[in-house]
Amino acid sequence: MEKYFLSSLENKQLSYVRECEYIRSIKFKTGKNAVIVKLNEPLQWSDSEGFHGSDYAIVTARHEGYDVIEPIYFPTFVYVTVLKEKDYDFVEEIENDDLLIIGIGELYETYEKAKYHVFD
């Protein structure tokens, strides 16, 4: 599987670099591509029910013309989301309502580029 590196200039929680191992691609009901990724550092968030964490996330491109399945532009700007209730092992098609947005970030091809936010 492919590995990329996630960080963010716009989100404090995602500001340090995480390795993203691509697990598999999925689609929104609209046809837009997304990818389930396994992170080397879990995402954390809180809501009215308490604190939560996940080693898995779903990333999807923020801008038209960018692809998360086989990125050709780096960085690729992405939404970083988690499933609200579905099981990552069984999900094949998703809707916006299935997801909780954790933040926005960028995918880079190397750790160093992610750490220093290098734009090619």
Indicate the topology.
Elements: E1 3-7, E2 18-28, E3 33-47, E4 50-61, E5 76-83, E6 93-94, E7 99-108, H1 111-116
Parallel strand pairs: 2-6
Antiparallel strand pairs: 1-2, 1-7, 2-3, 3-4, 4-5, 5-7
Describe the 3D structure:
The chain is mostly beta strands. The chain has one helix and seven strands; from the N terminus they run βββββββα. It has one helix spanning 111-116, and strands spanning 3-7, 18-28, 33-47, 50-61, 76-83, 93-94, 99-108. The protein has a six-stranded antiparallel β-barrel. Strand 3 (33-47) and strand 4 form a beta hairpin. The chain is globular. It starts with a strand and ends with a helix. The mean pLDDT is 92.
Main sheet properties: 6 strands, antiparallel, barrel
Count of DSSP H/I helices:
1
Order of helices and strands: EEEEEEEH
Which whole number gives the mean pLDDT? 92
Residue runs with pLDDT of under 50 for 5 or more positions:
none
| Strand fraction | over 45%
Principal-axes geometry comes out as globular
Given the helix and strand composition, which structural class is it? mainly beta
Strand order of the largest sheet: 1-2-3-4-5-7
Helix content: under 10%
Total DSSP E strands: 7
Radius of gyration of CA atoms, rounded to a whole number: 13 Å
Distance between the termini: 24 Å
